[in-house]
Amino acid sequence: MILFELRCGKDHRFDAWFRDNAAFDQQSAHGLIACPTCADTKVEKAPMAPRLNKATGQALDAPDMARAMRQALGEIRKSVEANCDYVGEKFPEEARKIHYGETEARPIYGEATQDEAKELAEEGVAFQPIPWVADEN
């Protein structure tokens, strides 16, 4: 696994994990990487410094890092499910209603296509894409 610092066409910076350089290249070529701030799919690698583990002199163990990341994402999922209303495929519609004051503000989660996410971002609707991991191992 490799962590890249990425930059979208609007100069938002974010980090993302990939199996290797080829995985990034393939996903980027197919528009599968989107900026979490604005949903822009024009994403490139930003200049970054390598990370070294100087304390132990050992390389980081990728399987352990992947397990820890998966566990953290699982905790995020549990928190979202416990504290937010699931609105399913109506997420874009519900998010707009909240944004424009047509319904009471409340935390929601659901699904949106990349096009729907881009439209929400262009309208200034606040939302955050979350990598969703399955409950089972």
Short précis:
The protein has 137 residues and is of the alpha+beta class. It has four helices and five strands. The protein is globular.
Provide the β-strand percentage band.
Answer: 15-25%
Which spans of ≥5 residues are poorly predicted at pLDDT below 50?
none
| Morphology | globular
Strand order of the largest sheet: 2-1-3
Counting helices, strands and paired strands, the structural category is alpha+beta
Annotation, overall tally of beta strands: 5
The overall average pLDDT, rounded, is: 86
Radius of gyration, in Å, reads 17 Å
Q: State the helical fraction.
A: 25-40%
Annotation field: number of helices: 4
> Whole-Å distance between the termini?
19 Å
Structure description:
36% of the residues lie in helices and 17% in strands. The protein is of the alpha+beta class. Strands 2-1-3 form a 3-stranded antiparallel beta sheet. The chain has a two-stranded parallel ribbon with strand order 4-5. A hairpin with a 4-residue loop joins β1 (2-8) and β2.
Tags for this entry?
single chain; 137 residues; alpha+beta; 3-stranded antiparallel β-sheet; two-stranded parallel ribbon; 4 helices; 17% strand; globular
Which helices and strands appear, and what pairs or packs with what?
Elements (H helix, E strand, L loop, with lengths): L1 E7 L4 E6 L2 H9 L13 E3 L16 H22 L1 E4 L2 H9 L8 E3 L3 H10 L14
Parallel strand pairs: 4-5
Antiparallel strand pairs: 1-2, 1-3
